[in-house]
Amino acid sequence: MTATALGAASELDPSRHSARFSLWFSCVGHAYSHLFTMLYLTVVLVLEREWGMGYAELLRLSTLGALLFGAAALPMGWIGDRWSAVGMMVVYFVATGVAAILTGLARNPTEMMLGLAAIGLAASIYHPVGIAWLVRNAASRGKALGVNGLFGAIGVAGASAVAGVLTDWISWRAAFFLPGIVSIVTGLVLALCWRLGLVADRLSDRVPEKPASRQDMWRTFFVLSVTMMCAGLIYQCATTVMPKLLADRLSGWIEGTSSVGLVVMGMYLCTGLTQLYGGHLADRFPAKTVYILTSAFQAPALIVAAVIAGPAIVPVLMLALALHVMSIPAEGSLLARYTPSKHRSLAFGAKFVIALGIAPVGIMLAAWVEQTTGTFTLLFLMLAAFALSLATAALFLPGGRAASAVPAPAPAE
């Protein structure tokens, strides 16, 4: 067959088109998962006035949703492995949108808590299913995880901006209604693509690797269980208090919910770009080394963030955030490398049970520190200790580069 014919055949290869659509929907899904679970963290600033409740009391309403966002990841991953990753993603988009709309209808704290719990349960589908789906279809795993992580950062950034702008311009209810409608439409588009054959499930990796030893698999599992718990606490505490922290530390410099939201958005968008570089590093260097160094250097940045105030706090927080997101592709690459493809969704489900299941602890810790001390200084000193613990534990991961890819490509499903 000629080179031209080969090129034409490649363009018509349905598995390649499916991989592209999978990447796109997985990335969009990642943005949505963080956007929907973080809308409330900015809305709560308005509810303090409208419902006459304290910040810590309102913040605790999100605890059940945060718990479900992590704890339900394991069963969702199990279903994704046994049924269909694409089907589960359709359910994810539609169910999350419906849950957001119901949350926007909340009339009291109890209904708000139940609505946020519904969002957490629906959104728990994404991380075990969507990322495993992405990894199976990726030609360059680190790069794909980096791009996917950037979209996650866009979701985190967009949550504060969307919630702040819609709350100021319309109402806090619109901050749940409009994103909910967009998510439902996205799910219906994915369902149509699935029906037309533009998106399909892949049961094995597009670029397979030599299998890791059972000893290395178990070693990685136990070490990552510790590191992901520390990373989850750092992420959850920092993102939970970010709008409130900036409102306090930048008092006199910025005013209004939308202004705080836009500052948070800018910070997360800029730091999210570094995840692309983190993906490049994870492909080029040993993922273990990248993971240790990016985690260790978070500690001094978090210590400075604990005590600094005024506009200078913004670049310091951005440095800490950048180092955190740069570590994520390396962490994902390590987990994917030491997990069989057929159990990938279950493995990522376990990861997020640990990393996101710790979220209620992070929320309660943040609320307790703010209520007890009136500041977040102690909280950020704790986060620095978690970062050092993470880097220390990561030293015990299997060393060296990941095994090279098997020359023969995986057959298309």
Strand residues, percent: under 5%
Instruction: Encode the helix/strand succession as letters.
Output: HHHHHHHHHHHHHHHHHHH
Low-confidence stretches: 1-13, 400-413
CATH architecture: Up-down Bundle
Describe this structure in words.
- It is built from 19 helices and no strands.
- The protein has 413 residues and is an all-alpha fold.
- It has a single domain, classed as MFS general substrate transporter like domains (Growth Hormone, Chain: A, Up-down Bundle).
- The longest helix has 37 residues.
- It is globular, with a radius of gyration of 21 Å.
In short, what is this structure?
The protein has 19 helices and no strands.
